[in-house]
Design a protein that fits this description.
Largest sheet: 5 strands, mixed
CATH architecture of the largest domain: 2-Layer Sandwich
Shape: rod-shaped
Distance between the termini: 24 Å
CATH superfamily of the largest domain: Histidine kinase-like ATPase, C-terminal domain
Strand order of the largest sheet: 2-4-5-7-6
Radius of gyration: 37 Å
CATH class of the largest domain: Alpha Beta
Number of domains: 2
Strand content: 5-15%
Length: 364
């Protein structure tokens, strides 16, 4: 598998050598083009090559020294960079000028020692620029590492919150179901109780097999709801009527795992249980304008005083569902409560319509 740019940046050792070699190669190329433009002899080009090689070698001890300075104060680092670059520039320029006098000038000897360090400021600026790039690139890499760690910590907290919201729902549901099974056993309805235990086992297996961080197709979600509703049917019998109005295309949509179950549980508690004759729950789903519209309606008492609210109360189920949607979709979702006609409550969820094909081909 080819190495990406991010992989290369993380591999600091390799990244340093690649940039260092590229930088000094650019230095040689620029000096070579200048020599050709001024019609310099081959001996001058040889001096350029040797000077670049020594400059490259000087950056190795500079790197080792800068590693020791890394954790020091900015003032100490700045002073260390200036002193190191200046004194190494003297030695580098002395070497370069000596080669120039020997190879290009035919062994000519200057009259003054200062002629051996002529142009030292140019060498100083080159090493100073190299030092600035070294610290700048390393600070950038450090910033990238910190950003990545922050994102990982945020993602971990995000996942933990989603799992907490999901797992808060199971104990309440499990308590109600076990209580109903216990009642059936006391009433001698052992066959019905055994059926409820079997459905409970299947439903719990589904909840454990599906990661709350992942999404499932609406079709799979509805099949899991059938298991849950069969358990509730054991409790309510003919008092609970379920209707489904789901478009075939909507069944392919990806939704958060068990996003509807707490809403149905809430509806059964507040809309079906208080009515002696029971009631009807209607589950509908359709796709409109690249959005999946999920609705759960009942014919129970509905909201008090005809209240219509996006942030209505109704127990842990509604609150957790709203928070899970916010975690998954942010501002791309809507969760609303409204009165049903002639009575009851309508819960509407609007989320982006996405399928397995969309997630596997993000550019499509």
């Amino acid at each position: 598998m080819p190495m990406t740019l991010n992989d290369l940046i993380r591999d600091r050792g390799r990244f340093f050598w690649i940039l260092n070699i590229a930088g000094w190669s650019g230095y040689v190329l620029t000096a070579y083009v200048g020599a050709l433009a001024h019609e310099k002899p081959d001996s001058y080009i040889a001096v350029i090559m040797a000077t670049a090689a020594v400059g490259f070698l000087l950056t190795i001890p500079m790197r080792l020294l800068y590693r020791r300075l890394w954790e020091r104060s900015p003032v100490t680092i700045g002073a260390g960079v200036l002193v190191t670059s200046y004194f190494l520039a003297f030695g580098w320029r002395w070497f370069s000028n000596t080669l120039y006098y020997d190879w290009v000038k035919g062994g000519w000897q200057p009259k003054h020692l200062m002629d051996y360090v002529g142009g030292v400021m140019g060498s100083f600026y080159i090493l100073l620029c190299w030092s600035g790039l070294y610290f700048g690139i390393n600070y950038y890499q450090q910033l990238q590492d910190q950003t990545e760690r922050t994102l990982q910590a945020t993602a971990a907290a995000h996942q933990a919150q989603l799992k907490m919201l999901r797992y808060q729902l199971n104990p309440h549901f499990l308590f109600n179901t076990l209580n109903a099974i216990s009642t059936l056993i006391l009433d001698g309805a052992n066959e019905t109780a055994n059926l409820a235990v079997s459905r409970l086992s299947d439903f719990l297996r589904y909840t454990l097999d599906n990661d709350p961080m992942k999404r499932v197709t609406l079709g799979s979600e509805l099949r899991a709801l059938d298991l849950y509703l069969e358990i509730e049917k054991v409790r309510f019998g003919e008092r609970l009527i379920i209707r489904k109005e789901v478009e075939s295309r909507a069944r392919e949509a990806l939704v958060p795992s068990l996003i509807l179950q707490p809403l149905i549980e809430n509806a059964i508690k507040y809309a079906i249980t208080p009515i002696e004759d029971g009631g009807t729950l209607t589950i509908s789903a359709k796709v409109h304008d690249k959005m999946l519209i999920l609705q759960l309606s009942d014919n129970g008492p509905g909201l008090k005083n005809g209240q219509k609210s996006k942030k209505g109360s109704g127990g842990v189920g509604l609150k957790n569902t709203r928070e899970r949607l916010q975690q998954f979709y942010g501002d791309r979702q809507a969760f609303t409560l409204a009165p049903n006609d002639p009575s009851g409550l309508v819960i509407t969820i609007n989320i982006p319509f996405e399928t397995d094909e969309d997630t596997s081909n993000p550019d499509s």
